[in-house]
């Protein structure tokens, strides 16, 4: 077991002198996957006309098909985007909100997407409502009721994270999606952190729109994400970039893909490398690796909490988090804390100002070790003392 963990750690390209506990922000690509990425980029440069012209559609279709199989979806309902923020902007800018309509989110959502919905609602004189979800989290049913208590006759969109960015908790989206569908409310899911960390079956979830990243927990190169939209709601989606796919001269089997896939000249190598990332995970039995990482994080949660002297955001259970967890730190200088951890301890981990609290988010992946988490606990004990 230890030998396998060491071998996997050596496959990543991370600097040796940094305790990298921030997989959640931008991911980390294993060497074999990154080599395939560079091989594809070189192929593009050697014959760009063939690559981006004659072979574009076939190559992208192949990459979509493999990603769709991994995510439990139909390839015609899936399109590649650079990141989750782009995917959700496509959806948000497509929806027609009227004055007085409401978009319902929570106070655990990613800041960039809070800004997106605020912008969209200001443009249409609608309202973005953020339902508070109290911490510590108690039960999934309580969360569903806390969110649903803010639904009313004006609610048009339910926006919620599968795994939250700031607080790093798994939310009960299945029950909320089902309830929203019964109420005729359009569901938009921020799945930035879910694929590769927890099982994701898009067709089974049934959200109207779900966008996630491949370059985080799926280990693909930076700039690879996806947008999935249910077949019966795809007619609502406009292209964010209007190009040759709109009213295409050579339409494919999916107007949704035609509208969103071709955006002019761009490097699609990261998208085409996603199948290599999926194969890497399959070859290394990634569910077992992910379980090992989750077990390691859960083992050290009590020690980290003891060092901070603060209550947990949720119970120390895989029902609430697996490979990523956030901790309350007793300081208002959240930026200074991040700098101190890096400068004094070479710990790379994000600090977040959330609901008047400083959070430290710790991510654990195949390259992480008990020494990394031991150091976090020691550093926090010294800093908090």
Concise structural overview:
This protein folds into two domains: 128 residues, Aspartate Aminotransferase, domain 1, CATH 3.90.1150; 246 residues, Type I PLP-dependent aspartate aminotransferase-like (Major domain) (Aspartate Aminotransferase, domain 2, 3-Layer(aba) Sandwich). The chain is built from 15 helices and twelve strands.
Give your account of this protein's structure.
This protein has 385 residues and is α/β, with parallel strands linked by helices. It folds into two domains: 2-29 and 285-384, Aspartate Aminotransferase, domain 1 (Alpha-Beta Complex), CATH 3.90.1150.10; 35-280, Type I PLP-dependent aspartate aminotransferase-like (Major domain) (Aspartate Aminotransferase, domain 2). The protein is built from 15 helices and twelve strands. A seven-stranded mixed sheet has the order 2-8-7-6-5-3-4, sandwiched between helices. Strand 11 (351-354) and strand 12 (357-363) form a beta hairpin. Helix 3 (31-46) crosses helix 4, helix 5 (56-71) runs parallel beside helix 12 and helix 13 packs parallel to helix 15. The longest helix has 23 residues, at 286-308. It is globular, with a radius of gyration of 21 Å.
């Amino acid at each position: 077991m230890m030998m396998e963990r060491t071998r996997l750690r050596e496959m990543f390209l991370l600097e040796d002198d940094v305790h990298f506990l921030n997989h959640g922000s931008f991911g980390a690509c294993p060497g074999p996957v990154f080599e395939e990425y560079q091989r594809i980029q070189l192929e593009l440069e050697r014959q760009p006309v063939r690559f981006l012209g004659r072979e574009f559609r076939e190559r992208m279709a192949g990459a979509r098909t493999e990603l769709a199989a991994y995510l439990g979806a139909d390839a015609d309902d899936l399109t590649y985007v650079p990141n989750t923020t782009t995917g959700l902007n496509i959806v948000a800018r497509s929806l027609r909100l009227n004055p007085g309509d409401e978009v319902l989110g929570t106070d655990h959502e990613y800041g960039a997407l809070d800004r997106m919905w605020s912008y969209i609602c200001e443009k249409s004189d609608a309202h973005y409502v953020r339902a508070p979800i109290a911490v510590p989290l108690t039960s999934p049913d309580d969360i569903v009721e806390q969110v649903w208590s803010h639904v009313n006759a004006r609610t048009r969109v339910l926006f919620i994270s599968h795994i939250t960015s700031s607080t790093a908790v798994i939310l009960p989206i299945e029950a909320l999606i089902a309830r929203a569908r019964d109420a005729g409310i359009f569901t938009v899911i921020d799945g930035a952190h879910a694929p590769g960390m927890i099982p994701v079956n898009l067709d089974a979830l049934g959200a109207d729109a779900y966008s996630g990243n491949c370059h985080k927990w799926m280990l693909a190169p930076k700039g690879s994400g996806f947008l999935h939209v249910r077949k019966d709601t795809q007619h609502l989606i406009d292209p964010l970039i209007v190009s040759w796919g709109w009213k295409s001269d050579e339409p494919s089997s999916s107007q949704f893909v035609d509208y969103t896939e071709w955006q002019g000249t761009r490097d699609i190598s990261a998208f085409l490398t996603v199948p290599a990332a999926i194969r890497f995970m399959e070859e290394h039995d990634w569910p077992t690796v992910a379980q090992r990482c989750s077990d390691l994080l859960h083992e050290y949660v009590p020690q980290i909490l003891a060092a901070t002297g603060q209550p947990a955001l949720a119970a120390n259970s895989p029902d609430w988090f697996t490979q990523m967890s956030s901790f309350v730190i007793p300081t208002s200088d959240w930026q200074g804390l991040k700098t101190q951890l890096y400068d004094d301890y070479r710990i790379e981990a994000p600090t977040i100002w959330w609901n008047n609290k400083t959070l430290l988010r710790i991510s654990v992946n195949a390259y992480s070790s008990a020494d990394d988490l031991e150091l976090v606990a020691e550093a926090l004990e010294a800093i908090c003392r």
